[in-house]
Amino acid sequence: xxxxxxxxxxxxxxxxxxxxxxxxxxxxxxxxxxxxxxxxxxxxxxxxxxxxxxxxxxxxxxxxxxxxxxxxxxxxxxxxxxxxxxxxxxxxxxxxxxxxxxxxxxxxxxxxxxxxxxxxxxxxxxxxxxxxxxxxxxxxxxxxxxxxxxxxxxxxxxxxxxxxxxxxxxxxxxxxxxxxxxxxxxxxxxxxxxxxxxxxxxxxxxxxxxxxxxxxxxxxxxxxxxxxxxxxxxxxxxxxxxxxxxxxxxxxxxxxxxxxxxxxxxxxxxxxxxxxxxxxxxxxxxxxxxxxxxxxxxxxxxxxxxxxxxxxxxxxxxxxxxxxxxxxxxxxxxxxxxxxxxxxxxxxxxxxxxxxxxxxxxxxxxxxxxxxxxxxxxxxxxxxxxxxxxxxxxxxxxxxxxxxxxxxxxxxxxxxxxxxxxxxxxxxxxxxxxxxxxxxxxxxxxxxx
Length: 449
Prior knowledge:
By secondary structure, this protein is mainly α. It has helices at about 1-30, 30-40, 45-50, 55-75, 75-95, 100-125, 135-160, 165-175, 180-185, 190-210, 215-225, 235-240, 245-275, 285-305, 315-335, 340-355, 355-365, 375-400, 405-430, 435-445. The protein contains 20 helices and no strands.
């Protein structure tokens, strides 16, 4: 029981990384229109913000670095230093007065997010017991929902017309003077939201740097040293790509995660903006809808956390993607110009979020590789997925158009991507439930892994 409580405490501490990841994405998304008006940005400018953010390229670059650093220097190394980088990036966003500065802040924050994510999923799995590994991954995923929900609530309170906007105006004029333009005043609500992320990051950093090193990693490191193996980064790449089982696993996991994430990344960053332009609702209503959707995601993930270690993974995975496809079918049949279509889409997308492929990617990604290149493999896949998502985010802005005129065409693209994720995941779903990481590794890679 004490071990279980310990794994739960470490899971919660590490899961704050996911809160900060999703929080950074949604903080940018919820204030996107405010930054657009303040800096006079076009849809293409917004596409580039998405391209280099925690949603895409920034996280991709960080992941490829962080994954292999976590395998070489340990999981604790990441938790000791990484959130300092995150706080720097958020501080740049808070202080931004022009587009290049905003871009730089989004990029630095994104890189930190990417560095932390592979280590967090790896650490959670390595510190979990066999019968609660899926549960702990779901707890981590719940923080991915709580982050956006809290950020959106703050965004609505501080947004123009919100209950606390008068307080925002007072701060803005105290800093910028009474002659500050209204668009410059409005964007202070987004600055304050990012300030909340800075505070959570500071708290998380103090918790995470006190964590014990992963015993799995220490054992793998000791075994490699005893055999005289090279533990350099280039060697880690070589070992990963020279193993056929590992390469096939990378292809499988990258496919199911990429095809889903191309859809989810667009929704994570652009959803409030889409509701405003294609749906024709106000910024406040768009954020309320998105907030409720994240609450649904958290609730459904909590239910899944009770089932995932006891229920067939293929059934949960298939259910989630069928609901996701139904959500986009609402777009191409009913549309989002009316309240019914908007709410139907928001609710269905919330339900799928609680059973999404990201849960299984995080779980399987930490189960299907041995400890010596577990984080590195996840970093590589995260790099591929978020990097291609960055490119897709730019393409999406051209398909979508300035006022959402291409949204139906984009919806058909989303349905096709989700179908690929469904089929590949259904066929390749591994049998890992209720098994130790050691037994899975021996079965897949032999005794000398």
